[in-house]
Design goal:
- This protein is 37% helix and 19% strand.
- The longest helix has 18 residues.
- The protein has a five-stranded antiparallel sheet with strand order 4-14-15-16-17. Strands 5, 6, 7, 8 and 9 form a five-stranded parallel sheet that branches.
- The protein contains 14 helices and 17 strands.
- By secondary structure, the chain is α/β, with parallel strands linked by helices.
């Protein structure tokens, strides 16, 4: 066996592999950042000379399967009552006003800071559900890809992996209702969207990004447009990921019933070729039959616990989904919270509040709740991203997270308990020592090299946007 290359290897006393925890693990990767070997030595093995040693348990980096980057800049700024009964729909009015003011430069600054935050908090990849397309007057830029390219640059600058999902948004309600004035920046024809994907393909390929499509929702894309877009996507990018907001709010369910006589998930499953390339974002309000039918397709449920709580959406029935073999992953959506471990905590706690039980997302194979959730979210997130980022295994990308074994919340615990303490008993991001993307270290001792400069640019962009409103 050839000696490991110190620049392309990492030794960990403990690592969470797809099959569970293992001791004395050597991970090696190639020049492209793809894992070539994961070897477990004997229980008394010492670190190999010259090979970097992880200062704590080693995990695969978490994919964030649902992000609206621009919304990070108004997180925390809508927490006051403006109506007799505040809801998702009143929050959306705030979002429209904020979205109306953003320039390409401001979007790039916001996204760069957000992606730095994600890397510091345990995410190593992001699926960017991107529906802000045009200028502040709702007119196309000279280059229609202007804002999409800003997001790709932000990901490249921060060093995070990205799946870019331009959103198809054409109407304000079910049945092709005309768009509202506040939605003018979002609107694209189906042909224009397919042209955008063609335009973005070389830029995405140049930085190892994936491209897909996000039909925004059934209320925003009429059936004919949805079918045409899916056909065009299949010709342009076979096997591309497809993400859609679905059944997030009870009003959405009621409106869909009034339009079609069917609930949103029911309609989608009967009228679209939903399969393992799809991500059903939220899918909060489903019947037991819909849970079973959606799980059978192999689609991923995109769960965003902090946003769903912030917006009062409701709680996804994860035990029922898992009962049917459903796959799932985590997103931070509106970025009220940017922390992979905290999303895991909120997901489990929401289930506990509904069921009045504990450790609901553990399994017979993996009784440690934090470990079980991490492995499930890795696999579902990778599937939704359409990228090989599903765990510490040959052929997967070397996206890594190392916990800080010297953090007070983790110190002197066994590795599986360190992860549990990280999720359920620590300040969470403070328990992360370092993150790696494609074999390149992006954070050290919990901090990204661009932390200060990216933060300043973010604050300046947010201040300018607020001043313009």
């Amino acid at each position: 066996m050839m000696a490991p290359d110190p620049q392309r290897s990492l030794f960990a006393a403990d690592a969470l592999l797809p099959g569970g925890w293992a001791r004395n693990v050597l991970v090696q990767w190639d020049a492209a950042g793809r894992i070539t070997g994961v070897a477990c030595a004997s229980s008394d093995a010492a670190p190999l000379a010259g090979v970097p040693q992880a200062p704590g348990p080693l995990l695969a980096g978490m994919p964030n399967l649902h992000s609206h980057a621009f919304q990070r800049a108004f997180a925390g700024l809508t927490e006051y009552r403006t109506a007799g009964q505040d809801s998702f729909w009143s929050w959306r009015e705030h979002m429209y006003r904020f979205a109306a003011s953003i320039t390409p430069e401001q979007l790039e600054a916001i996204a760069t800071w957000l992606y730095v935050e994600m890397l510091e908090a345990g995410y190593t990849a992001v699926c960017e559900f991107h529906y802000l397309h045009h200028d502040r007057g709702g007119q196309p830029y000279a280059d229609g890809a202007t804002l999409s390219l800003a997001l790709l640059r932000a990901a490249r600058t921060a060093g995070i992996g990205i799946t870019l999902l331009p959103a198809l948004y054409q109407s304000s309600g079910f049945g092709g209702q005309p768009p509202r004035a506040q939605q003018a920046r979002f609107i694209r024809s189906t042909d224009d969207m397919l042209s955008l994907l063609e335009r973005l393909t070389p830029a995405a390929q140049a930085q190892g990004a994936a491209l897909g499509l996000a039909p925004h929702s059934l209320r925003a894309v009429a059936p004919d447009s949805l079918h045409a877009a899916l056909q065009g996507l299949a010709s342009l990018i076979p096997q591309a990921p497809i993400h859609i907001h679905i059944a997030e709010q009870t009003q959405e369910v009621d409106d869909c019933l009034a339009w079609s006589g069917q609930r949103p998930v029911q309609w989608l499953l009967e009228h679209a070729p939903v399969d393992a390339h799809w991500c059903l974002v939220h899918a909060t309000h489903m019947t037991p039959h819909e849970y079973a039918a959606a799980a059978r397709t192999g689609a991923v449920a995109g769960i965003c616990p902090s946003t769903e709580a912030n917006l009062g959406d409701g709680i996804f029935d994860m035990p029922l989904w898992l009962q049917h073999g459903g796959r799932w992953g985590l997103g931070s959506d509106s970025h009220a919270c940017v922390n992979a471990a905290e999303e895991l905590l909120l997901l489990e706690y929401g289930q506990r509040l509904v069921r009045r039980q504990r450790n609901l997302l553990a399994s017979a194979a993996q009784p440690e709740t934090a470990s079980a959730m991490t492995l499930q979210a890795l696999q579902g997130g990778a599937q939704a991203a359409g990228r090989p980022i599903g765990g510490l295994a040959p052929g997967q990308q070397a996206d890594l997270v190392v916990l800080d074994a010297q953090h007070a919340a983790l110190r002197e615990l066994p590795a599986h308990r360190m992860l549990s303490a990280h999720v359920f008993g620590s300040p969470r991001s403070a328990g992360i020592d370092s993150t790696w993307v494609a074999g390149v270290r992006r954070t050290s001792r919990g901090r990204h090299a661009l932390h200060e400069t990216a933060a300043r640019a973010f604050v300046a962009a947010r201040s300018a946007i607020l001043a313009a409103q």
